[in-house]
Amino acid sequence: MTAGKDIDQWVTPEQLEVWRLLIRAQSRVLRRLEGDLLSKHDLPLAWYDVLVRLLEADDRRLRMSELAERVMLSPSGLTRLVDRMVEEGLLERTQAERDGRGFYAVLTDAGYERLREASGTHLRGVHDYVVGRFDDAELATLSQLLRRIDP
């Protein structure tokens, strides 16, 4: 059996094209959003995501493990990112009171201000690059379809 035939039994060329379109669209949108945030606010998209997740959290803080899961980074990757954000004054790292073993990432006032300044740019990009290209019915369908992948 050739490699091509083995692949064809799992995914048709049309299905593979859908996969490639999905990956390409995601990559292009993320690059554009990142470019906008960097050029206008000197803020990487991953930092923006961390700031948003902390703003949404109770007391504007999350355990490092929970934050890593929410921003889809490895624990070590998040630790490095948080270290840089702490150096910039956007976050603080505090020890967990209950067990003393874990740590929290905490949004600072400076981090909140940086997020506030950048949010218009980010949301405008989300509109221009994604949601503004669909009508409400298409967005509802897209949401339903994507939830099948990530329920």
UniProtKB/TrEMBL annotation:
MF terms (GO), sorted A to Z: DNA-binding transcription factor activity
GO biological process: response to stress
Entry-linked Pfam families: MarR_2 (PF12802)
Domain (HTH marR-type): residue spans on this chain: 15-151
InterPro entries given in the database record: HTH_MarR-typ, MarR/SlyA-like, WH-like_DNA-bd_sf, WH_DNA-bd_sf
PROSITE patterns linked to this entry: HTH_MARR_2
Gene3D superfamilies: Winged helix-like DNA-binding domain superfamily/Winged helix DNA-binding domain
Superkingdom as given in the UniProt entry: Bacteria
PANTHER family given in the database record: HTH-TYPE TRANSCRIPTIONAL REPRESSOR YETL, TRANSCRIPTIONAL REGULATOR, MARR FAMILY
Protein name: MarR family transcriptional regulator
Top-level taxonomy: Bacteria, Bacillati, Actinomycetota, Actinomycetes, Jiangellales
